[in-house]
Structure to design on (348 residues):
């Protein structure tokens, strides 16, 4: 294995330093109240630097930014699986699994249809749809290498997650307190919240504002959506490869298998087994501490990736998508709020 060029090392150190900075900023009361994760702050800081001093950095530092935005990104998605266990699936019942599956499938179908009407290209449609359908910024990051999207499109998709996920975190508790969700049981409200709110952090924030029972159900339902990330990526890879073959793209003969999706599933299975063994041998507390440390390191890795991606998002590139991307995200948000409510009302 060849050592990294000095410029790439400096680029990685820069991204790591910025990730440390936004991790500290995320602990401020204002950021914690808004559930602004280090990943979100990282992409914002990256965008600021992209449009101010990015052009002043040495060209050979770009290699480090690319490593952070690709290899470290994929490793972060794989180790995200340590946040999940299969036992979570059985705690909320088959209704939550069914609703989550319908939400994910429906969001992708609607996103592709509306995106075509708006004139957005395939990459933008899929990135925005994945962020809305599955788990926010993490899903956008996982989808980016599958569709081979340009960084500024990833930033646009993450921006929609931040906007509508934050809106949901305040809107859902307001709907609950005003009695507009009284047709649903507390379990139903939890499933509705977990199945339709974008980010895990936003689900936790919204659930906490509605009570511990709702928060627990919402979080578990959201984790099931996260598990659906792997089959969604595999399906996307297959459909994209088939579409390229039909269009006569000779450069893409084989299905581009997102291997990190398999590794993600493997980590979920491994975590489920180790957690069960640890609980059975009275080591559950120790294992939770270990996975807690892994989660922190993984969040830092994803923060580095988000920061690096943000640093490639200049305003000139951002304008290429314009308001159409947010119109698509708005349409999907309406579907999540109203379609998700109807599904929960009918099935729970």
């Amino acid at each position: 294995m060849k050592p990294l060029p000095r410029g790439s090392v400096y680029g990685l150190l820069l991204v790591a330093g910025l990730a440390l900075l936004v991790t500290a900023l995320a602990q401020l009361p204002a950021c914690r109240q808004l559930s602004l994760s280090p990943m979100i702050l990282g992409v914002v800081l990256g965008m600021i630097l992209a449009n101010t001093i990015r052009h002043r950095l040495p060209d050979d530092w770009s290699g480090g930014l690319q490593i952070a935005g690709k290899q470290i990104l994929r490793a972060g998605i794989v180790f995200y699986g340590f946040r999940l266990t299969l036992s979570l699936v059985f705690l909320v019942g088959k209704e939550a699994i069914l609703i989550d599956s319908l939400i994910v499938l429906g969001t992708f179908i609607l996103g592709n249809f509306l995106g075509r009407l708006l004139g957005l290209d395939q990459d933008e449609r899929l990135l925005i749809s994945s962020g809305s359908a599955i788990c926010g910024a993490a899903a956008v990051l996982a989808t980016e290498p599958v569709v081979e999207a340009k960084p500024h499109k990833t930033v646009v998709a993450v921006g929609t997650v931040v906007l509508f996920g934050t809106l949901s975190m305040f809107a859902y508790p307001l709907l609950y307190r005003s009695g507009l969700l009284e047709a649903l049981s507390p379990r139903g409200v939890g499933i509705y919240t977990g199945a339709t709110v974008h980010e895990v952090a936003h689900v936790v924030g919204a659930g906490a504002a509605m009570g511990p029972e709702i928060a627990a159900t919402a979080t578990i339902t959201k984790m099931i959506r996260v598990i659906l990330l792997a089959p969604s990526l595999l399906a996307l890879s297959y459909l994209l490869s088939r579409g390229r073959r039909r269009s006569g793209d000779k450069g893409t003969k084989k299905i581009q298998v997102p291997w990190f999706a398999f590794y993600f599933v493997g980590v979920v299975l491994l975590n489920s087994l180790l957690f069960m063994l640890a609980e059975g041998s009275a080591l559950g507390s120790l294992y939770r501490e270990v996975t807690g440390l892994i989660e922190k390191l993984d969040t830092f890795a994803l923060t580095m990736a988000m920061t690096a991606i943000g640093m490639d998002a200049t305003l000139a590139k951002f304008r290429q998508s314009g308001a159409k991307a947010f119109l698509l995200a708005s349409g999907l948000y309406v579907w999540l709020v109203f379609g998700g409510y109807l599904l929960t009302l009918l099935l729970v």
